[in-house]
Amino acid sequence: MRILPFSRIALSMLVLTLMASSVSWAQDEMQYGSKVRWNDVDEGGPLSPFYMGPEFAFWDGGIRGVFDPEDPVYINIDPTDDEVSENDVRLTIFGDLPAGSQVAKADNDVGQPLTKFGTGTTPRAELRFLDVNGDRAYSLNDPIYLNVVPGKINSGDVRITNYQGYPAGSRVADSDLDNGLPTSTLPGMLSFFNTNGNINNGGYAIYDRGDIVYMDTQYPFYMVTINDVRMSI
Ligand SMILES: [Ca+2]
Ligand SMILES: [Ca+2]
Ligand SMILES: [Ca+2]
Ligand SMILES: [Ca+2]
Questions:
Q1: Ligand 2: distance of its center to the CA of 78 in Å?
Q2: Would 225 disulfide with which of 6, 34, 110, 218, CB 3.0-4.6 Å?
Q3: 90-114 in b/e burial notation, b at 16+ Cβ within 10 A?
């Protein structure tokens, strides 16, 4: 008589374990720095434009006035606020908060000043790719960088996708295999998947908590297509 309830519990725990592992598997596949591949669940989903074009920026710690590998890098979603604010996206780790995470209201980096790349004495930075297969086109296996001083990969650049065992969100170091390799302009623009579906009075999607930033690289635009890049968790 007691076996039945026990096995029910065991069965439900097994089911829960299986569900949890399939969910975490899906999340691993879809994490920051991954590219959209055939049959991914987000493929074909709608993407929405940002109200103003987000900008890449850094919190100038470490050596002041110089972009250095200690400076956390962000997508500043509202480029006019010049500070780390809620729902900005980290491109590098900050403390124990991972690369690709959205900034939450109570996080310790909220309110820190952001310096745009390409202003004053700071170098320009743009998303670029390394053409590993040499076909002069942006391909599925070509890794992406936030390339500071665009043209070739430099020490301090941020890997947006993983490459040769270097994870997405890591910095290029002097001795790394990819340091010094040439980069090419990555076509496309930042947009987002409106996970919670909220819209404003004008009918436009609102970017907020849980929405996912993409680099929209391929025609048709405003749709998740193969080779697009997930820029947040
Ligand atoms: Ca600095
Ligand atoms: Ca901000
Ligand atoms: Ca290529
Ligand atoms: Ca939203």
A1: 5
A2: 218
A3: bbbebeebbbbbbbeeebebeebeb
